[in-house]
Each structure stands twice: as structure tokens, then as C-alpha cells.
Amino acid sequence: MQSLPLLPETAPFPADQIAALNRIMGNATAEQRAWLGGFLAGHQAANLAQPAPAPARKVGLTILYATESGNAEALAGAARKSASRLGFAARTVDMADTTPAEIARAENLLILASTWGEGDPPERATDFMRALLAEDAPRFDKTRFAVLALGDRAYVNFCQTGRQIDERLAALGGRRVTDRIECDLDYDADAAAWLDRALHEIAPEPEGAAVIHVDFARAATEAPSRQAPFDAEITEHVNLNGSRSSTRTVHLELSVAGAALAYEPGDAIGVVPSNDPALVEQVLHAAGLAGDNDLHTALRERYDITTLTRPQVAAYAALTQDATLGALANDEAALAAFMAGRQVIDLLDAASHRLTEAQLTSLLRPLPPRLYSVASSRKATPDEAHLLVAAVEYDAHGRQRKGVASMDVIERRKAGGSLRLYLKPNPHFRLPADPDRPVIMVGPGTGVAPFRGFMQERDAIGAKGKNWLFFGGRNFTHDFLYQLEWQDLLKRGVLSRLDVAFSRDQRGKIYVQHRMWEARDELFGWLRDGAALYVCGDAKAMAKDVHATLLRIAAEQGGMAPEAAEVWLGELRRAGRYLRDVY
Known about the structure:
alpha/beta
């Protein structure tokens, strides 16, 4: 005789749960059923003793971010999770994917905005900012808002984008719920405290409720992080430049086996560097603290002893009571001229003063990591990450200057040693999802690094899309980075076309934008047919020149007026077909 089901179809459970419960109960012993019955009875009695509060309507919250290197985006994601745990109906929105008119509908708004370079908004946020600052911008009368601004005090217009947003929203009728915070590179603690305050102001917790504090530094992941980097073994350390080159560019191969470093081509690797011991000694000597070994170690590993900021000049002037520095700190033009090309050691030498350890370290910022585009694909090198690092060294104001991370890697790291690193995802600089889409890559110098990873990836998956690379360097003989690899890819048909520009091989300098102009007919044809265009490298000159050349090509090949050409490039960017990773 067929046994009846333990739970009827009318039980208040979905059909799959009824089936699962019947399977469990059908195989349970009498003792197990009796225990479970007692457990459920006790559980119900406990809940009846403390009735649950009536559910409250969740408070809506929009978290808008403007990001360049991904810091604001990561903060926005962490803020959304924390707000959701506190009962908010929170969502994150990239400025690149919305407009002020859409955002003006939000009742509660948190803005996390980075400033890039000398006061510019992140590239992906330029359209939003232009519309927000326009005369016909929408009103925000129904919006309560708060702004967290990210920046770098080494630049004149520190946190300029966040300031503009904060002031503009207030002018458009928005109600500020808490003061704007302006964060330097070490933003974790300040950002967490600000978010706690902002969320409380938006929706105050009932009396006696537990407060959940946010710790951005503790991400729910086992992957290496900025706070807990991975010690990767250096397995290869090779200078790619010829012996007669005027620069040094090192190819690094790093073992990341067991590191959970799930990078994708286009991502960056954060390198945690150490300061030059010789410079540390100079700083200690200038501060009257030479011979302090513990402080030497701290300055070498934890503090930024190169970057000079305006607050440092003002703080040191106040500490030393030096009249010249005091006048300098209050004269913006003179201060800018003094700071150009100078570092912390120059400030200490400008007004000799014996400092205590606390006084010296209070002047300094934490030593920030440096980001390098990953130059490999995990499909080609599963347990490795490759980097391309160019030496930064120059003379200024009678001193030889050296890049912190680049010279640490090039001069003080060798194969067999190690390097502390973590992953910095860059989801806005990825290969097309469609492997058949053509790709155009513009990467002079170390800007070619991500494109090596692109080609390894497309080669490994057998992508059918055509690939075109523009590469530039100083001399063909000495500076053609990864030359043999590009030639092999050309021979095998993975790379469809390679155009190179070596600026010092002839009387007139030739750069990648010149090669693009020479190939403008075919280049415009690729773009017209759906190609994605990627640019990586120097932002101050190369990226601007490449952009200007693209506008010229659009004008000539597409018959577009200047305004129409800008609109066309903007449409390519919004469609994910014009992507830049510039620095």
C-alpha cells in the first residue's frame, strides 16, 4: 500500500520544499522525529516571548559615484552593502550611466566622487558633470544629499569634482544632510566614519538600536587587498631596452599561485613599494634624527617621503615658525612655483629644524601603492601575473629624483626576491564580450602592457575579431618593447596589423597619432564597422593628441563638424567602444 505524504500539498511551503521535507521525514527514525518536534515547539515558544516588530518601509538610497581608478566605485559598493544591512533599499549608480535629470528623482542621495589630475572629473563622469553645471540643469528640491570627495593633496585643485557637485546640488535646491568630507589617499577610516554619520542623518536609528560601523578596509574576500597584500615571488626580471637606450623598462613575471588573484586583461596590479634607503637617511639627517633604526624602517616601509603637499608646507612653517615658509604658504602662486619638482627633503632643508619622531611622522602621509596594468592573461599564464615597469628618474633643483615604486622594482628587486601586491580590477577597460568584434589598441611605451594581455587572451580563446596595434617608442633598435612577440602574433594572424612610431629615429619626431592619421581611411573604416578602440598611457600629452587626431579623422572621413565629431566620440565611449586607461 502506498504511504501518504507526510506534508500535504496545501502545506504553507513551495512544492520543492514540501518534497525535500517529505524526503527527510520519510527517512527519519521515530527518535529523530520526536526530537525535531520538541525543538520546533521550543523555538516557537521563544519567538512568542519576544514578538517581532512590525516591518518598516525601507528607506530608498541612491549611491552615485564618479570613478577614475576604481576607488570611488569600490567605496560605493561597500557603502551599498553596509546601507542594506541597516535596512536601506540601496542602489549604486555610475555617473557614466545616468543623467542629472534621472538622479534628481532620488529622495536620498550619497555622492562619492573622485577628482582626476589637476581638478578634472573622471573621464566617465564628464557628460554628467557638464549637464549638472549647465544653466538648464534640473532642480533637486526633493533631494537630501551628502558628498564624499576623493583626491590627492599633491594636486592644486584637491577634491575639485566633489566640491563642485556639493555646491551645485545645494544651489539647485538640494538639502545637505551632513557636511562634505574631502579624503586624501588614505581614505578608509575617514570614509567609514562619514558614511556612518550620513546614514544616521538620512534615517536616524530608533533609540537603543545597535549601530553597525563600516570598515571599508575589511572586504569580504580572501583575495589580496591593499591592506593585506600578497608576497609574490619574482620569477623573471628582465630589462627590455637595449644597452644604448636612454631608459630602462623591466618585464616582471610574478608567481601568484595560491593568491586568489583572479585578474582579467585590462585590470591593474597594485604594488606596495619601499622607499629608497638612501633617501630615508637624507630625510632623517635633515630632521636631526639620523641613527634611529626603528624610525628608518618605518619611513622606508610606511610613509610617503617624496610627495610634497600644500598642507605639509603650511604645517612645517607653523612648526618651525619660519617667516619665509610662512609667507610662502600664504601665497598660492609662489607656493606652486616652490613645490614644482620638489619633495619632502627640500622642505626640510628649506628651514633646518630638529624634529621629534612624532613631529616628523605627523608631517607625512601613508606610503601609497602604485598601480600597473597587468601585462598577461591567466589563460596563457595561469599562476603568474606579468608587469611592465619603466624607470622614473630625473634631476630637479640640484637633486637626482627617483620614482618610488619604479626604482624599487628596477634597482632593488631581483629574480628570486618578492614583491607585495594586490588586484585592482578595472571593469571599464575590458575586451569586448563579443570575440568577433575588431579591436584597435593605441599603447606607446608601457601603455602597451594591457594589450599584451589582450592578445594573449584573444589568442588563447581563438577569437576571430581582427586586432590592430599602434605602438610607439624612442628608437626602433633599443626601445621596441616585446618586439619578437608582436612579430610572432603578426605571423600567426592573431595580430592583423601593427603600426609603429619611433620618435628619435629621424629628424622630425613621429608619434602614434601621426601613424593613426596616415592610416585614417582604414582606421575610420574599422570604427564604422564596429571596432572597439583602446588607448593606454600618458594622459598629459599622448592621450590628448590621440583624441584630437580622432576628431580630425571623424571630420575628414565622416564629414563631421567639430561638435558632431565630439558627439560621435562620446557615443562610442558610452557604447563601450572608446576606452581609455591613462595616467
